Structures are given as structure tokens and as C-alpha cells.
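S.,

As promised, the beta-D-glucopyranose run. Input:
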Amino acid sequence: MYVDYKGPELESRKRIGWKVRYWDQFDEISDWSKMSTIEMGLINPDDWKASWIHADTENFKSNNHGNPAVYLRKSFNIENVPDSARLYLTAKGLVDFRINGQKVSSDAFIPGWTNYNQRIDVYTYEVTSLLKPGENILAASIADGWYAGTISGQHYGKYPELLAQLEFLTNEGKIERTIVTDKSWSYTLNGPITMADIYHGEDYDARKEIINWDTSSASGKDQFSPVAEKALDDDVQLLPKPFRSVRAIESLPSKSVHRTKDGSLIFDIGQNIAGWIHINLPGKSGQQIQIRMAEMLEKDGTLYRDSYRTARSMATYIPKRDGLVDYNQTFTFFGFRYVEISGYDQSKEPNLDWVTGNVLHTDFPRTGTFTSSNNKLNQLYQNIVWGQKGNFLDIPTDCPQRDERWGWTGDAQVFTPTALFNFDSHAFLVSYLDTMRSEMGKDGSVPSVVPKAHLDIFGNSAGWGDAAFIIPWELYLRTGDLEVLKNFYSMMVRHFDYYDRKAKGGLVDEPKSFADWLQPKRYGSDTVGWDERSGETSTYLIASSYYGLGAMILEKSAMALGKQDDAARFSIAFTKTSSAIQNTFFDSNGKFIAGTETQTAYLLPLAFELLDSEFSKKVAARLSERIRQDGNQLNTGFLGTSVLISTLEKYDLLDQAIAILFSNEYPSWFYSIDQDATTIWERWNSYSKESGFGDASMNSFNHYAYGAVGKFLFERLAGITPTERDPGYKQVLIKPVLNDLVPLHSAGATLETRYGTVENSWKRMHNGWEVTSTIPPNSTGKIIISALPSDISLLSGDLDFTKNSEQSEAIAGPGTFRFFVKQKGG
Ligand code: BGC
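Predicted complex:
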């Protein structure tokens, strides 16, 4: 539920309080809730008195293989601790900030990855309790991170910079004193983190620790020299971080350890994650401990590291004395399950406590859960969730381990609906869209990678750039937040116009597209698109289909925003494109005639509802035939897979949907589970017990794109769907597939919506199904069951099923309902 703010104008530093009460269905008024508050950060450029500071570039010989962290400090005196103190903090790079030796927060990877040439996020911390009368020390370490590291080809800058402003306030809100980053700070490059880079990892030399460098009793003060200073950039917005930060969310203990032939130890944390490796183990003075990791093991029990490609992915630690080493990285993260340790004190017996995996991701609340009676399906769902955890680390990435970890728009687009079922990723995705908008071409093209950094070579690609209209629409549909549409409407239109200008007769081509990326098996025709990994589905069909989808999304968005004229324009465009698609790409029998008859060539026009309903039946029949010829197996890449199961089910091909979803044969989801996958893989055969590893040139074991099937699990197996009529689950469509073809005894899901928890689950009984639905307050449930009303008996709650064609329908108010659906002929 969104309530527009209508209070006085928001100003920097202002605190706003609010409380809530409600009226129930009997008009009873509740008590007021406790007061909650929100405090504004710094929202005007002239709030800033601080300057960017950095190491003297004479000393900082930046290279793009990884640089040392920069340690910065400043001392100041106060007589008394102020009533309150706020720290406004950001960096070009990554920052770890301390006051008097204490970290200001557990947030990691501050300030996240935006288009740093347009917007840099600022974090606000309440730090009063960290101050003391007398001398105080502000201390920060900064590293290249996304800003100046190899991941962005040093596109934004060559060295990290710090910006901080500490304000002391009286109880009345008056600013008493401001301490800022400026020339009075000093720095050293000679601290313990001798190298930090997102791809290459971290090197830590404890012998270089500067005792108490972050407190007033620092011993090595004289190692610090004056910093260089830079003014704020006029055209870069400094804005409060608009969503939750990355944190170490959970710790996974090692489950087993074994020794390799060369004496190193390999720990298994049992789960492929994106995160840090925490070691707590015996080291020898001056002897480097090497921490290497991998997602998979080779047959001989050693690490399989090919999937990292050029990323060094490694951490090292040199102890300054014999004894226990307690170390966790700061400015890098790894994608891994296995951890190899060498260089430790070999005289000690290994212990599982020596290595822990710290899982990193954006700290958003969990929204949904799915469960069923089938263990493999449950494992698939868990793998989807882990895929999201591993790849929602400030921006949505393709994978968290190799020398990419970029914000590929196609991957993000296909996964958005599932992402919103799992976690409240609304604000996270809005921030991503904001970056996308800032990086669009003047012509409305959208880069394939956002933030695009140095990756200009990848231009607009059909199915990738279209994230620009798909993500805002999905956000609106699934959260009900009309602001998203308002905010991004002009971006959506600009992207639509990009196609529109190129279109001829309602059709458009985007020949340099990634197309149906990684279609697993070839039919033998020529490659389309970017390169041989782009599959065989015509780019002309793909681009035209997304163009048609864009017209449809824009028509609905314009209607939602009350822009009737625009809606009429998009409606005309939609009609033109859809009939051109129907007439150009298919013969009158529904056979695809404009290139290779791939599954995806049939799937996209069907999934996007671009065909007349009668004609679509013919096309669906051809799709069915194609799949039958393919041995009732999938043969789809990134685009086709995202709509495969739901489209089959939608067009009455449930038997094939089920055959594919529950298949154990390559290529299928369960195939990877039979190979012990704990995440979604980039390729259906990234690894097999029989033939080993897939093509190492691109072989990620944590790639969420195929996890897009999660949407089907929630919407159709469990039966919880948002409706366009009342988005954001103001109206919930409860429509589970209750059919003998579904090989499950039970399935169900829960979902936190803006109105409360929606739940739906069903159990197979011997002659039917028992369904339990919960609809939260202030929303209604539209329950649709494919059975006649006479075959539905109510077990609890008040529902009135009426017949609607071959189905029954009931509208449910808030509450929990239980009913029994008799099986046909049962
Ligand atoms: C990435 C993908 C991405 C693709 C573009 C790959 O290297 O890992 O996930 O979408 O390139 O085709």
C-alpha cells in the first residue's frame, strides 16, 4: 500500500515522524501505532562542505591489476560529546570507516555501484556514541572497488577517493560543528591491505599493520603524509543511498575438509555463494597463507578454477607472529563453495572451524517461499534463491565469480518477476533503472550492461535493452507502485521509440543481438546474432517480438498513468506489429517460415500474446510438435527459457510443460540437481558426473537467468499471481494448476505483499485436491479453479463459486479459506 507523502517540503537533515491507525471492516478504529521516524540525508549540493580526498598520485602508481588500499586519518579535539552527531559518507571506490577504532557500521561495499559519472550514493550514520571528549580519530581505508578496479577497466578513475562530513548537532537541530574530508587529512599506502581488487582478491600483510592507526594512540602517525584534495563534481549527484546496503548476511560453517596431494586443505561449505572467506587458523610468522577457492572440484579433489577466467580470485595473509590468524576480506568478494588453504601451520591438526563462508548480498527482506512434496523441485527453488543471493550484490549481476560480475540487462529482465517473489528487491531494481536511464543512448538504445562502464562494445541487444520497459512494468504489476511508472515512463517511451524509428511495416531487426543466448543443441542452421553462442532463433523475430511486447507494456502503462492519447498510439503500434508478426513469420498453418523453427521462435510471440487467439492455437500446436521432435526436451537459451514452462501451460500443453520441468535428462533443470548443483548454472551441462566440465570459456556455476522459472512455481504450481486490474496484490489471483499431470502430492507458497501475507497451498487427496488460501486485509482474492462449482466443496470460510466457462470463480475477502476440489470422474 503506498501512501503519498503530503507533509511539509522535505529538507536535508529533517526528521519526519509518522504513526498509523486503521479502520476495520466493522468501522472499528484501532489505537495509534508507535511513532516511527525517517531522517533526510543531505539532498542539496550546497549542504556539502567536504572535498574529495585521495592519495598523492605521485606515490600512487595505479595499475589495473590491483592496488594497495589507502589508509586515511584525521585527528580533532572536542570538549564535550555533542547531543548528536551524523556522518555522511561515500567514496569513489569502496570505504571502510572507523571512529576511534570502531567501525561505523556493518555495511559493506559502500557506496555500491552506480553510474559514478552521474550519481554517487551517500550513507548516513548516527555516530554520537563513538565520540569521546578529548582527541578523536576519524580513520578510513579505501580501495578501488567497482570505481577504479579491473571490473570497470578503470573507466571512472584510476584511484579511489573519499568524501565524508561529520556534523555535530544540538538537540534543537542546530549544526554546531562540521568536520570534513579536506587537506587536513593524511594518508599512507603502507598499510596491511597491500592489494585489493574485486576480480583479483585481497593481499593482507599483518606485518604492516599500523598499531592503533585508527585511534588517538597511533604509533605510526609519522608514516602518514598529507592528502590531495579535489572539489566536488558539478554534474555528479550525491544522493542518499536509496536502498539497503550489502552486508554479510549469514555464515556457513565448513561441512568437510580434505587434504590434497600437495598438502593443502580443501574445505567445503556445502553451498555455492558470493561472499567472503573467514579464516581462523594457525599461521607461522612471515609465512604467507594462501586462500584460493572454487565453485567445483576436479575429480582428484583439487579446485576447478577455470570458471574464474582472468580473475585471480584469491586472498593471501602474512601473519606477523606464530599463532591464530583471524581474517576476513574487506574490499573484494568471491563466488565459491570450496576453499583451499595452504601456508598454514602444518604442525596443527585441521579443524572445520578454520574456515567459514560469509554470505554477502543486498540486505533486503525475504518476501516469498515455495515448497512442494518433490525434493528436486524444492532443491531447484533453493538454487533459484541462492542464485539471487549470489547475484544481487548492490546491482543485479550475471554471475559473482569470474571476470564479469556485470549488470547484464537481459539476465536482470528475465529474472525480475522471480526476484520480486523471493525478496523485496523493489528499491534495489529502481536504483538499477535509474542508472540504466542515465546510460541510455540519445537514440533510446539501452546498453547490454548497466552500469556500462567501459563496456560500450555491447550495444543495444533485443531482449537485453528491453529491460527498460519490462522491469518498470513488472515492478508496477508486482508492487503496485505507480511512482515507478511515472518516474520511468519517458525512459520506456524513448526505448520504444528507438525500435519504432527503425521499424518497417511493424517489424524491426536488431541483428547484433545476443538473441536466444546459449541455446543448448543446434539444428544445423547458420548462427544468428552476436556469435555462435546466440542460437538459431531469428533476431528479426526476437526484436519484433520485444518491440510488440514494448507496445503492449506501454499501452498499459499509459492507461495506468491516465495518458489516453499515448495509449492509443501504442495500441495502434501493437496491432500493426502483432499482425505483421503473424503474417510475416508464420504460414497459415502456424508454421514458422522465416528462419529456423526453434522452440523460441514459437515461444516469444505466444508468451507475449502477439497473435490472434485462434491463430495462436495453431502456433501452439507447431510449438508442441517442435518440442515433440526435440524429444520432449527443452532447447531454449536465455530468452526462450524464461517463458518456456509458463507458455506451454498457458496454451494447454501442460503435459509437455511438466515433462520438461520434471525431466532429469540433459538439458533440464533437474539434470543439474542430479549433478549436485546448489545454484542455477549458466549452462545446462556446466558439469556432469559423466563427462566433467562444460566449455570453460564461459562456465559459471552461479548464473540466475534460468532461475526465471521460479515465477511459474509461484504463479501456477502454488497459484499466487498479481493482477493487472489491481496491481501489487490489491487483487490476488489464486489459480493453482490442479491437474493429475502435475506429479506432486502438495505445493504451496507464501508471499509478503504490501497488504500482508498471501498464502496458497494444496494437497492431493485420493479423489481430488484440498486447497487452503489466505487473503490479507484490504485485498481481495479472485480464486479460479478448473472444475465445476458442483465439484467444489467448502471446508471452511465463506466462498461462493460460480461457473465461468469451464472453470469456477469466487471472489474472496480477507481471511483463510479451505475447500475441496473433486477430480474429474473422481
Ligand atoms: C554473461 C551473460 C550475458 C551474456 C550476453 C555473458 O558473458 O555472463 O549472462 O547476458 O554474456 O550474451
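The chain has a mean pLDDT of 96. The longest strand covers residues 265-283.

- D.
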